[in-house]
Design goal:
Blueprint: E1 2-4, H1 5-8, E2 12-15, E3 24-31, E4 38-45, E5 48-53, E6 57-60, E7 64-67, E8 73-74, H2 80-88, E9 96-99, E10 102-113, E11 118-128, E12 131-138, E13 142-146, E14 149-152, E15 158-159
Parallel strand pairs: 2-7, 9-14
Antiparallel strand pairs: 1-10, 2-3, 3-4, 4-5, 5-8, 6-7, 9-10, 10-11, 11-12, 12-15, 13-14
């Protein structure tokens, strides 16, 4: 299933054995900056922030996530496998996007696939005065993710809003 980060809102986490009452809710993801793959999820349980491995997810709808057991949730510092990734973790939302040295904008949303789990596209906004330019950039165009921002390989992104000012498009006649 493909979802956008902003549409998951408060996805509640349920334990398979006790599906009547949520044990917590999804807050954010731990994304490996080298691969763009989701390695884990940050989960809020009461006032605690815990980490959950994606391998422990049994099913996922847009607002409900079912895990095998509550033991799947652990303290972030106890996860040896994720320790290095968490240290390198870069927040995707709000990250600056660069095409070489040219600033493209900031990430305002992203789509992801719950099966792979990977980022599919990032949605980038740039404001000029009162005009908003929004672009959708595919995962294949992302060359690296660092604390300085997300770098793309070229200009082959999609403009979601195309503006043509004072131009008449001429369409050649076909014989």
């Amino acid at each position: 299933m493909k979802l956008t980060f902003k549409t998951i809102g408060r996805t509640f986490i349920f334990e398979k054995a006790h599906q009547d009452f949520p044990i917590g809710y999804l807050v954010d993801f731990v994304i490996n900056p080298s691969t763009g793959k989701f390695e884990a999820a940050w989960v809020k349980i009461g006032s605690e922030l815990k980490i959950m491995n994606f391998l422990d997810i049994q099913s996922w709808t847009s607002n409900k996530l079912i895990i095998k057991t509550e033991d799947a949730l652990s303290e972030p510092e106890k996860s040896l496998r994720l320790k290095e990734i968490i240290r390198k973790e870069v927040p995707i939302l709000g990250a600056k996007v660069w095409n070489g040295k040219q600033y493209i904008g900031k990430v305002t949303n992203f789509t992801f696939d719950t099966l792979s789990p990977r980022i599919e596209t990032i949605i980038v906004d740039k404001w000029k005065w009162l005009w908003r330019q929004q672009r959708i950039i595919a995962r294949t165009q992302i060359s690296k993710i660092t604390h300085q921002g997300i770098f793309i390989v070229d200009n082959s992104f999609v403009d979601t809003q195309k503006t043509v000012k004072n131009k008449t498009l001429e369409i050649p006649e076909v014989d």
